[in-house]
Amino acid sequence: MARYEQIASDLRDAIVRGDYPIGAQLPSEAELALRYSAARGTVRQAVALLAAEGLVGSRQGARRIVLGSERSQSFAELHSFAQWARSMGYRASGTVLSSRRRPCSPSEAVRLSLEPGEEVLDVLRLRRLDGEPVLVERTVYAGWIAPAVERLDPDCESVTQELYESVGLVFAYGEHLIDAVAAGSEDARLLGVRRGSPLLRQRRVTTTQEGRPVECSDDRYRAGSVTFSIRNSTAANPLVRRAGD
Amino acid sequence: MARYEQIASDLRDAIVRGDYPIGAQLPSEAELALRYSAARGTVRQAVALLAAEGLVGSRQGARRIVLGSERSQSFAELHSFAQWARSMGYRASGTVLSSRRRPCSPSEAVRLSLEPGEEVLDVLRLRRLDGEPVLVERTVYAGWIAPAVERLDPDCESVTQELYESVGLVFAYGEHLIDAVAAGSEDARLLGVRRGSPLLRQRRVTTTQEGRPVECSDDRYRAGSVTFSIRNSTAANPLVRRAGD
DNA sequence: AGCTCTGGCTTGTTTGTACAAGTTCGCCTA
DNA sequence: TAGGCGAACTTGTACAAACAAGCCAGAGCT
User: Fold this and answer.
1) Keyword annotations for this protein (chains A, B) (predicted)?
2) Each residue of A11-24: pLDDT tens digit?
3) From the candidates B40, B237, B242, B245, which should be mutated to test the interface with A, based on the most A CB atoms within 10 A?
4) For residues A2-29, b (16+ Cβ closer than 10 Å) or e, as one string?
């Protein structure tokens, strides 16, 4: 763990613990540098981390201020349903309902950087939280990863983790589109809701560390089961609104 | 504009223009430093900006890779419906349907850091894109900003901009919760959809630069009119999933 | 009392240096 | 030919120093 991460972690703990309540000022960079025997640049890296998490705000000339005290989850927990569920104290389960290979559509070829007509793997999964069905996942995997996915246990809890352990695959980057849709008849049947009832849809494309697309997916959550949360500031905000297509 | 912002802007333009297509390698920091006659640290700040936007990814030891080429909007455009709409080439309009003062509820007191029972301003707005109603906005403003809000033109296009110009108020930080809900009868009537049809809901709390809460709001978008988009990486992702309450 | 202004404090930007750690690719060997 | 090894390259981390720019409180003035 890098020095600046240690410092960030220490400060984060202090904030979560309430040593610096919401609205309070953080010590100045100079003081922190002295306290941790680090250079000012290192301290700046640490507080930049906290600012990116939305925990503290900063303005030139004024002391940094504590804005929040909730710890936010890691990327892995965002990407992996199972890992997120576990960290929240839920028991996640899932079932593969269908899995078949087929040639990719033109739009999939673009999103996954494939040759037109190249083979992809189409998987339909139902996911549960504490036994309750909450998520219908329709995922399209690029052909090159298909064998590893097919080898997975159909009731495998965490696909992300299994793929990491079996072939060393790391999901590193992703783009997510979030909107609301009405439940289709299949969605309704699987999730146990009425047709036309609201679902929260998350469409995503995920790539490896090298920027190679792995999968794109259409995930639909039962309304009320899951909420997405974003903290943002003038400094950094990756969330954008887009016009409906 | 700082030097590192200029460099970031230049690189961003080059990426958007297609000089560095998706999957391509960016020049090394050393080369960029030479090209822009800047120190390596300055170049690093520039590319860190692009990485935060999700445009490029980086791994220790390997060249940086271009991950996307879409320009993402600024915070102002996320926060302000009107500014976002304008930047996307839409014509935004809006109407205040009701506006009244009342004592705040206990939960509002917590979210806006008010004394229990302190007065707040409750505003119901309908927003349109190119004349089509797409958004019902139920906003609760803290009492101290209420007079400025009441002075606004009921058909005012951009509340954010007007409040900045009239009282110098800057919305600096926000927390956003996104989920799907069924349209209530009022929602349905205002948006011209059937009751029970899916809406994308964004609940938010916004604060000033000093961390003082200004407003909390419940915004409901007609399904299909707007999509939220998030780019993330192992490095930074402010988006988290939360269990439904 | 209320206002202005100034000086000290704090964060923002930039440069330079050094080393650590990971990647890539060509060369050499079995 | 396949695999291993290592050198060169590239990004990550850390330190030090200097100046710019913005904030704030207290001194002084009206």
Assistant:
1) DNA-binding, Transcription, Transcription regulation
2) 999 999 999 998 89
3) B237
4) eebeebbeebbeebeeeebebeeebeeb
